[in-house]
What we know:
single chain, alpha/beta, Rossmann fold, nine-stranded mixed sheet, two-stranded antiparallel ribbon, 11 strands, globular
Amino acid sequence: MSAQEKLPRNLDPKDTDRLDVELTTPGGHRISLHLFEGDRPRAVVLVAGAMGVVQNCYEKFARFLLEQGFAVITFDYFGTGASSQGHLKDCPVRVTDWGQEDGRAVIDFARERYPDLALKWIGHSVGGQLLGMTPNVNDLDSAITVACGSGYWRENSPPTKRIAWLLWYLVAPVSVRVLGYFPGKRLNMVGDLPPNVIRQWRRWCLHRDYAVGVEGVALEEGFNRVRVPITAIAFTDDEMMSRRNTESIHSFFGKAPVTIQWIDPEAIGEDKVGHLGWFRERYRESVWRGLLLPALKKSH
């Protein structure tokens, strides 16, 4: 066992499937993982969540995959959920750190624990973007992005575009200046975020080429370094990410084979899915079993 890993422990004595694990990233951040592990898993799935969405939201989905024979790891990015330490205003983390530090540590942990199993990544929204920011990304065997787009506000879907200017030009900068962090829960926008996360994300969302346009050559090379086959699942009723947002972020993966699946909710028997709907249990058959399970099982 790596010295960077704290011994797993059961959160509930009656729950033999879920273990709580703490990792130390290369830069010294402590992050929280939930490990769902059955007997003789067929492969390992890492679930990287959306901005402001804590790992507990993905637990029912993780348990579904466990029933299908997968080991599953969810995690909270440093400064969010169970990976928060101290007051958010004192947390220096940036979005890029979530890939360079957190994503890297989780992949290393999974590779060490399951050296002989295929390792797959499901990235929801920013969780898909992090593929281009994670140094050891090519230790994965395949990746799925869900509702993942660039975030450039002028290309957002209309419901988000109508309020994005207010968020980026007024609400975000003023709230961080006054409170020292972004109070997303109170504002019913995203979630509570560390100051440098919202600042960096804001800069990205105001640039036509999003993160690559702001961070420059280093991040452009990071996306081009990715060789992992990527299946992108995008919902046509996504109220945040437009078709252009989706195409833009995936175009940054210049050397990776990318397949985008455009899903109309009505085609899978649903009235709506949207940006934040798919991980809810009501989509167990239509999205989990109908879309994500086949994508995980697909041989690349």
